[in-house]
Design brief:
By secondary structure, the chain is an alpha/beta fold. It is built from twelve helices and ten strands.
């Protein structure tokens, strides 16, 4: 359930680099138990918004940030972590020669009174955070044997060691297959059910509509639209991303002039990919059956019919 009291509130936040305004007068609140999707074209200010929350960029002097109703400044990663904000950016690095537990605690290893690695404590903590995303990955499994989806999940699970209130995800489904994407999206939904606030950048609208509660559209550094997901549509979001009044003509041109291509990054028509994602995410209790069919060259529909 979404908390009515925001964790973080932006008021008139702007970020300027020289003569370039990356964010312009942004007013935005972030709530517990909510998945907020941030969408927009390249250069719209999506990453800048996340980096302000992460403490990597500081807003101009006129803007203000509140945490639980109290004015604050976020001057670095340590400040954001102290406020309960964790970040997962793209291309997270792991050590392939280490197992899952060792990678979770890499650089923050637990030690006993004799300064020896406290493997038992680390494994207990690893079980706790993996359980929060309902992951069945073995703690001593080599990191090199994980799929891209499992590696992304591990990046998310690593943030949970500090029990954050808010988790920032920068394109968590980029470069993943349909099955791996569904797996990661199901992990994100699990975090929401645990009361976490999730803010994620995503350029694939079917993924956005599959799990988000609210969508914010950025264009040229400004908020060009903000919607409850169930109250909006692909056409409206695409129109706001493109800065036009109606996206129907844009979609028609794309579908007729560039056969088989759409501007959602989905690779298929939006509604088709959206329906596939919803079925896969909602049925993560039996991934083995789906995986078997997909590996044999079957389709998602084949897996549906077999179950």
């Amino acid at each position: 359930m979404i908390d009515k009291q925001p964790i973080v509130r932006f008021t008139d936040v702007s970020v300027t680099f020289g003569f370039f305004e990356a964010l312009k007068h942004v007013d935005l609140s972030f709530y517990r138990g909510e998945i907020l999707a941030v969408v927009g074209d390249n250069g719209a200010g999506k990453s800048t918004l996340l980096k302000v929350l992460a403490g990597l960029y500081q807003p101009d002097s006129a803007g203000g940030i509140e945490h639980n109703g109290i004015p604050c400044t976020i001057n670095g990663i340590q400040d954001s972590r102290a406020l309960g904000i964790a970040s997962v950016f793209q291309d997270q690095e792991f050590c392939d020669n280490l197992d899952v537990t060792a990678n979770l605690f890499l650089g923050h290893e637990k030690r006993d009174d004799f300064r020896r690695l406290d493997v038992h404590t680390m494994e207990d903590e690893a079980r706790r955070v993996l359980a929060q995303v309902s992951s069945p990955i073995g703690l001593r499994k080599p990191i090199s044997t994980l799929t891209k989806g499992q590696s992304q999940m591990l990046s998310i699970a690593r943030t949970l060691l500090d029990d954050p209130e808010m988790i920032l995800l920068d394109e968590p489904t980029a470069s993943l297959s349909v099955m791996q994407t569904a797996e990661v999206l199901s992990y994100i939904k699990k975090l929401r059910s645990n009361g976490k606030s999730i803010v994620f950048i995503c350029n694939t609208l079917p993924d956005v509509f599959a799990i988000s509660d609210r969508i914010v559209v950025l264009r040229h550094g400004r908020i060009n639209g903000m919607h409850q997901t169930h109250d909006t549509s692909y056409e409206q979001i695409i129109a706001e991303i493109a800065g036009v009044d109606n996206a129907a003509g844009v979609l028609s041109t794309l579908h007729n002039g560039r056969k088989g291509v759409d501007n959602t990054g989905a690779g298929t028509l939006p509604t088709q990919r959206f329906d596939d994602q919803k079925r896969l995410i909602d049925r993560q209790d039996s991934p083995a059956t789906e995986s078997t069919y997909m590996q044999k060259g079957g389709t998602i529909k084949d897996a549906d019919n077999a179950m």
